[in-house]
Prior knowledge:
CATH architecture of the largest domain: Alpha-Beta Barrel
CATH class of the largest domain: Alpha Beta
CATH topology of the largest domain: TIM Barrel
Radius of gyration: 23 Å
Number of strands: 11
Distance between the termini: 33 Å
Largest sheet: 9 strands, parallel
Structural class: alpha/beta
Strand content: 5-15%
Helix content: 40-55%
Shape: globular
Number of domains: 2
Amino acid sequence: MINMTTQNDSKLHLKFAIVKEARNSARKIASEMQNFIDQHTTVSVERTVCRLMGIDGINDFEVPLPNVVVENIKQGNGLGTGAAYFIGNAMLETKLSPQEIAEKVSQKEIDLTKLPPHDTFEIRLAIQDVVKHNLELIKENRSKRNQMLEKYGDKSGPFIYVIVATGNIYEDITQAQAAAKQGADVIAVIRTTGQSLLDYVPYGATTEGFGGTYATQENFRIMRKALDETGEELGRYIRLTNYCSGLCMPEIAAMGAFERLDMMLNDALYGILFRDINMKRTMIDQYFSRMINAYAGVIINTGEDNYLTTSDAFEEAHTVLTSQFINEQFAKLAGLQENQMGLGHAFEMNPNIKNGFLYELAQAQMAREIFPNAPLKYMPPTKFMTGNIFKGHIQDTLFNAITIMTNQKICLLGMLTEAIHTPFMQDRALAIENAKYIFNNMADLGSEISFKEGGIMEQRVKKVLSEANALIKEIELQGLFEALSQGKFAGVKRPIDGGKGLDGVALREKEYFNPFMEQMARELNIGGEN
């Protein structure tokens, strides 16, 4: 990565004093929110604790056992005490494993909240071996990824990132392996429409989805195995991406950690704005999900590009930068390193704007200079794709040009048929061919050029940065919850106590503990063990 940190290094002559101001304001916004997060838990956080303790499977009604366990605890008014306490207490009382306890709860042979209580210190001792063993599994996956990258070497320049979205995991494999052989570096398995609103994670391999494939641990395992086989054949490591957003954000992060996913779509604000998930629920869930991703060595991808599909990309560019600053600080609080922060932005201006390419180039360069160590996730044009495949291919080519000129790392390829249908394999092949051609022929262009002092690009980023700084200071004064309720991002207003999932939030009781959060915090060297 390039490392621009001073105004003298900036091609755009950015005012880094303003960048510092904005970053400090974002840090205060995130820190204030962290005080709220540290006092609460959610059903999804506690289901994640169950999964990390090895509880898996479904009951006779196909309800996941982590849901069964947490629902039992919630009905007994124990959610604020936490799943670790009740499972550990049951282990002491019954001498059973967490999985066996979950099965007994499902069969209504055990009510976790009515067992005789044991001493909290003894409960912690009872579960420590399970905690250590399962965290070791995640660390082994991280080590295996590093070993494979060392064996094959990693790619310099942009990752070619493409999607598969058939709805059938086995058909996804065919498409994913073909894409890898065509040159893709990252395969994203798109989730079925609406999964982010499910308050449970489906179980097993799935063959029916709409607009994508269900995110399940078995589907993760199947795809990981297939990409490893193809990677061995090609002599390179193929990264796998999925989505840990929505009502099951930390659960899916844990499943991905167990199955060695490499990237996760994981935004602090996306679910609030675009899926109407309650903001309190989302803030609590994103922290644990990001901590798990940090521990597993996963790169998160944030969703700022979505703002520009609902708002004007020219007028609202400052909201993207504001969100990037805030996402960066939430990520740091959860232990993510800068090289794990795939902060999102997009090439989404109306192609009829005069000098639109200059504005897009300016904003991409600005993101690279402000976040020099982040593997930025750059999204292709979608909003103004029309079905004219020839014009669409040109739009994607301009996007690819900016990707390489500004050293974006995660390049989600545009498809010439974006406005027509889910891409066919031949559409994807053309997109990969286009990107490889541009990345090779323009490989060092970015380092060979400079930008006119006082010119269109410099004036553009000066305006965007100034507006972002003003907005972030406004959010700092009123608080993030209030800002979201007023529609500061994408013009979407969400009530503080509205949206889906609020009933799954609980205040932590004094007995509460989350051993995974505690151990991860220690190893990641972040403040606040809970």
